[in-house]
Amino acid sequence: MTRKRRWVLLLALALVLPLALVGAAVGGLFWVRDRVEHPADNSGRPGSWMTVPSEYVVEFSRVRPPASATDVRWSYLKGFQDDLAFIAFRLPPGEEQGFLNGLGVVAEPDSGASLGGWSVEGFQRAGAGDPRTAGPLREGKFLAEPLPGHSKRLAATVWLAAEAEAGGGTRVFVDARDVP
């Protein structure tokens, strides 16, 4: 190999090696960012969707589906500072008002402003679908004091959609989350 070829090879290596290192570093940063923003399910890390028993979600949300409720579904998101729980179920005809009275909630027509983002994903993760496609929604909200050993109160939103098929009834969607 001649001296000129050696210099050309060294020059090419001097140019390619830093570019390869920069490319590897940038790729690594994107990989790390993706792992941080989208942690694996059940990892317990903030932002991970957790598999928890229904009783855990019921205790967290302070909403217990009546014994007559059917198609009960739930999901739970471990947040960085605030956790979120989602419950959806069907009430038989005639039980809606008793359920709302038990929560101390008055349902009014939904403004549509508060249903989106995590709420939709939480209900879809639970297998309940998107509440916005369930028909006209009514909405009620309540605040609950912290559970023993917790420092944060709970804010819950309850959406109700009347079901015309299968004899009627009401589809209930509950979004519960920690609030300062």
Distance between the termini: 72 Å
Number of helical stretches of at least 4 residues: 4
**E-strand count:** 7
Radius of gyration: 25 Å
Low-confidence stretches: none
From the spread of the alpha carbons, the general shape counts as elongated
Main sheet: strands, sense, barrel:
7 strands, antiparallel
Which structural class is indicated by helix and strand composition? Answer: alpha+beta
Q: Name the beta content range.
A: 25-35%
Largest sheet, spatial ordering of strands: 1-2-3-7-6-5-4
SSE pattern = HEHEEHEHEEE
Q: How many separate domains make up the residues?
A: 2
Share of helix, binned: 25-40%
What is the residue-averaged pLDDT?
A: 82
How would you sum up this structure, described in words?
- The protein is of the alpha+beta class and 180 residues long.
- The chain has helices spanning 3-37, 54-61, 96-103, 118-126; strands at residues 48-50, 70-78, 84-91, 108-109, 137-144, 153-162, 170-179.
- It has two domains: 1-38; 48-179, no CATH class.
- 33% of the residues lie in helices and 28% in strands.
- It has a seven-stranded antiparallel beta sheet with strand order 1-2-3-7-6-5-4, sandwiched between helices.
- The longest helix has 35 residues, at 3-37.
Top keywords for this entry?
7-stranded antiparallel sheet, 2 domains, 180 residues, single chain
